[in-house]
Specification:
Layout (H helix, E strand, L loop, with lengths): L3 H11 L3 H28 L6 H12 L4 E3 H8 L3 H13 L3 E5 L7 E5 L1 H19 L6 H17 L5
Antiparallel strand pairs: 1-3, 2-3
Helix pairs in contact: 1-2, 2-6, 3-6, 4-5
């Protein structure tokens, strides 16, 4: 079976772009791997009415002592745009998995809180992701840490580590 990404690399080199070929292979491989992983995650979360973004927010809230965070803090911790947090919160609120209210100490701040049902759904989603995706990410166990380390370097180069 031929690899279309390797074929693209061959084409890159043939056209005189050899100095960029390995980088193109890396970026294209990452993009394809993301699509594969996202499809696996979506297959687990979709039956629960969740996307990965909504799951991450629920899980983040479940990790907090009070089950609540200001929406701006949640966005910063999840490294997403405020509009993405607002969208996720709106969808989760409709599903009665979170609630929103003004902060008692500062009415300009909106606090999002996980509901008991949100905790139940987050726990179920985590159990399913752990058993169906996270414990079997598609690489041998000894290579998973290598991948994490390489991707951390990429993230660090982009200033993504905070």
């Amino acid at each position: 079976m031929s690899d279309p990404i390797e074929e693209a690399g061959r084409q890159w080199r043939e056209r005189g772009w050899g100095d960029a070929a390995d980088g193109m292979l890396a970026v294209t491989s990452i993009m394809r791997a993301q699509a594969i992983v996202l499809a696996r995650v979506d297959a687990v979360l979709r039956p629960l009415g969740l996307t990965f973004a909504r799951y991450e927010l629920l899980q983040l809230l479940s990790f907090t002592r009070e089950g609540s965070l200001p929406m701006t803090r949640a966005g910063a911790l999840l490294q997403v745009h405020p509009a993405s947090v607002t969208n996720a919160v709106q969808r989760l609120e409709v599903a009665e998995l979170v609630t929103r209210r003004p902060s008692p100490s500062d009415g300009r701040v909106v606090v999002v809180s996980i509901t008991d049902e949100g905790r139940r759904v987050a726990a179920k989603a985590t159990d399913s992701l752990n058993s169906e995706v996270f414990t079997r990410p598609g690489l041998p166990a000894d290579r998973v840490r290598d991948l994490v380390d390489v991707l951390r370097e990429l993230r660090a180069d982009a200033g993504d580590l905070g």
